[in-house]
Amino acid sequence: MVLMLFMSLAWGQCSDGEVELWDECYTIETTYELHLSDQQLSGTIPVEIAELTNLMFLDLSNNYLEGEIPSEIGNLVNLLGMDLSGNMLTGDIPSELGNLTNLMVLILSDNQFSGMIPHEIGNLSSLIDLYLFNNQLSGSIPPEIGNLVHLSGLILNGNQITGAIPAELATLSSLTYLLLNDNLLDGVIPVSYTHLRAHETEAD
Questions:
Q1: Which mean pLDDT values do the consecutive 10-residue runs of the chain (204 residues) have?
Q2: How many Å apart are CA 89 and CA 129, to the nearest integer?
Q3: CA 134, 60, 105, 47: dihedral to nearest 10 degrees?
Q4: Which residue in 6, 67, 84, 188 has a CA-CA distance of 20 to 30 Å to 93?
Q5: Whole-angstrom Cα distance, residue 141 to residue 161?
Q6: How many CB atoms neighbour CB 169 within 10 A?
Q7: How far apart (Å, rounded) are the C-alpha atoms in residues 190 and 171?
Q8: β-strand pairing of 88-91 with 136-138
Q9: What is the strand order of the sheet 64-67 is part of?
């Protein structure tokens, strides 16, 4: 009996309608913001975070999180802002992030993401700021980024991105800040980018 009581206290602490994340219980219906920056969090991002379907702001920056972003995070369709920067996250940026069409700010910088920037990023029609700098991303910049008509800041420096700057970016009339330095880009900076604070590093 004592053992069963201990187990009930140690596990399953959250009530129905709640989800447990990092030893804390969060109400599924009324958790709209999750600000856990600089909290010494470690391990992987729990798949259960996707149960917070009303979440609008997710900030897990500057912790010790590792592993991949769970694809289930693409279920958080009410998200307006997500900051996972300053961790040790690895793997590809999941294409399921393209489901987050209300997202206005996406910050994945200062991690260890690899692979290509997913083409589905072009589905984020509300996006204003996209920060992916200081990772290990490769491949070319997807031309679908040209669909992000509200994009103001595109920060991709400090990766291993190759190829030329896609012409589609020149159509982004709201784009005011573009950083592409410390990559493996080639070609020239188009004249249409002269109004931007743009930087490009040619391949050796």
A1: 38 84 94 97 96 97 98 97 98 97 98 97 97 98 95 96 91 91 83 54 40
A2: 20
A3: 100
A4: 188
A5: 7
A6: 22
A7: 12
A8: unpaired
A9: 42-43, 64-67, 88-91, 112-116, 136-138
- Report the distance separating Cα 101 and Cα 79, nearest Å: 8
Q: List beta partners, residue 26.
A: 19
What is the reported pLDDT for 194?
57
Q: Residue type for 45, please?
A: I
The span from the CA of 19 to the CA of 21, in Å, is 6
Give the list of residues 6+ apart from residue 43 with CB closer than 8 angstroms, or none.
65, 66, 67
Residue 25 to residue 18: CA distance in whole angstroms = 6
What pLDDT sits at residue 170? 86
Tokens at 28, concatenated? 């599924």
CB 91 within 8 A of CB 115: yes
Radius of gyration of the chain (CA): 19
Scanning the chain, the segments in alpha helix (DSSP H) are 2-10
DSSP string of 147-196? Answer: G-TT--EEE--SS--EEPPPGGGGG-TT--EEEEEEEEE-S---GGGTTS
CA-wise closest residue to 100 among 68, 122, 129, 132: 122
